[in-house]
């Protein structure tokens, strides 16, 4: 009879031993809470398909952040739903725009809360595309000019971190130059360096953007889900252009890319767990098909194990509660 000399189970005998030797940790400060703000008063409109999430007016946004901060959230990620849309996305860079007003309100009330803003035009033009869309084409360089205006307006309002999610070529360099021209040298840029043409943006996209661009047109600027090496090249370009942190979106289907990027770049790295990921967990938990707490904590730990330093997730408050 052969008996193994080295037994892996020796180190798994008790909960204390397992905790002492755990390779990956998940902490409250790893988590970022995404929130959506819109114009109006006392608005708290549920997002269909994403139980527990809402479109919020600024007063309710502040109330939501108050509760989140008490739980232990230290950073929020803001998206805006404008009161009007036009082909030039003018509401996206209006100093009285909903995101700009929300940033000011948050910083007045909670100056230590890290505020990250989505820098994109998809919710502001009516086309649903992440670039300025004219005559059947997405205009890369015209979009850059608008993105710079958006970024500067967010930074001037008090945003700590700007997260361009458009995937236009050259956007990080353009935004960095625009910020520097205005003396905003300390504003952090965290681009969605690798944003895949994914099905997992639903149902969030429907609630926030509203429009449904043709999938083929999105593939002219988003990364094909089949292309891991291209995804890495996209992130490396953003680093060369001046990114401070890089982000991968969605998270769960692309942990191979996260791992490679962390190993190759050693850069601070975030993942965005998209609305479809959240919706899947919620739907399966509602049906009793999985243990929501156990499954979500497993996924969050996997993000950290793959190399993510920050996790943007609608589960942020729940995870912090579960961590105790």
Could you explain how this protein is built, in words?
There is one protein chain. Strand 4, helix 3 and strand 5 (about 115-120) form a beta-alpha-beta unit. The mean pLDDT is about 95. Strands 1, 2, 3, 4, 5, 8, 9, 10, 11, 12 and 13 form an 11-stranded mixed β-sheet that branches. A two-stranded antiparallel ribbon has the order 6-7. Helix 4 crosses helix 5. The protein has helices spanning about 15-20, 60-70, 100-110, 140-155, 170-180, 205-210, 215-220, 230-240, 255-265, 275-285, 290-305, 315-324; strands at about 30-40, 45, 55, 75-80, 115-120, 130-135, 135-140, 160-165, 190, 190-195, 245-250, 270, 310. The protein has about 325 residues and is α/β, with parallel strands linked by helices. The chain has a domain at about 25-245: TIM Barrel (Alpha-Beta Barrel). The protein contains 12 helices and 13 strands.
Average pLDDT confidence is 94
The biggest beta sheet is recorded as: 11 strands, mixed
The quaternary organization reads as single chain
Q: Give the CATH H-level superfamily of one domain.
A: Aldolase class I
Based on CA atoms alone, the radius of gyration comes out at 20 Å
Shape: globular
First-to-last CA distance: 46 Å
Q: Please report which band the strand proportion falls in: under 5%, 5-15%, 15-25%, 25-35%, 35-45% or over 45%.
A: 15-25%
CATH topology of one domain, by name, is TIM Barrel
The number of E-state strands comes to 13
CATH class of one domain: Alpha Beta
- Assign the structural class, choosing from mainly alpha, mainly beta, alpha/beta, alpha+beta, or little secondary structure: alpha/beta
- SSE topology string: HEEEHEHEEEHEHEEHHHEHEHHEH
Binned, the helix content reads 40-55%
What are the segments in which pLDDT stays under 50 over at least 5 consecutive residues?
A: none
Give the count of helical stretches: 12
What is the architecture of one domain at the second tier of CATH? Alpha-Beta Barrel
């Amino acid at each position: 009879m052969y008996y193994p000399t080295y037994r892996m189970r020796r180190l798994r005998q008790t909960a204390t031993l397992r905790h002492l030797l755990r390779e990956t940790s998940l902490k409250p400060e790893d988590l970022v809470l995404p929130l959506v703000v819109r114009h109006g008063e006392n608005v708290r409109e549920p997002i269909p398909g994403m139980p527990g999430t809402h479109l919020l007016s600024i007063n309710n946004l502040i109330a939501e952040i108050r509760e989140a901060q008490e739980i232990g959230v230290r950073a929020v990620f803001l998206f805006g739903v404008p009161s009007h849309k036009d082909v030039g996305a003018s509401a996206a860079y209006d100093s009285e725009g909903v995101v700009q007003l929300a940033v000011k309100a948050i910083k007045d009330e909670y100056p230590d809360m890290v505020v990250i803003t989505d820098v994109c035009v998809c919710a502001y033009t009516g086309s649903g595309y992440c670039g300025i869309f004219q005559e059947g084409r997405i205009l890369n360089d015209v979009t850059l000019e608008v993105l710079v205006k958006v970024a500067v307006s967010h930074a001037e309002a008090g945003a700590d971190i700007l997260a361009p999610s458009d995937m236009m070529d050259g956007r990080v360099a353009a935004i960095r130059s625009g910020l520097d021209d205005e003396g905003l040298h300390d504003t952090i840029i965290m681009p969605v360096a690798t944003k895949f043409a994914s099905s997992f943006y639903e149902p969030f996209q429907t609630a926030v953007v509203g429009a449904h661009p043709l999938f083929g047109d999105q593939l002219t600027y988003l990364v094909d889900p089949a292309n891991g090496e291209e995804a890495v090249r996209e992130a490396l370009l953003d680093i060369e252009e001046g990114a401070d942190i890089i982000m991968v979106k969605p998270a769960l289907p692309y942990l191979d890319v996260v791992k490679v990027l962390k190993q190759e770049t050693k850069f601070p790295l975030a993942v965005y767990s998209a609305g479809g990921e959240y919706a899947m967990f919620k739907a399966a938990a509602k049906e009793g098909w999985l243990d929501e707490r156990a499954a979500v904590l497993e996924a969050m730990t996997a993000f950290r194990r793959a190399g993510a330093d920050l996790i943007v997730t609608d589960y942020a408050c729940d995870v912090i509660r579960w961590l105790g």
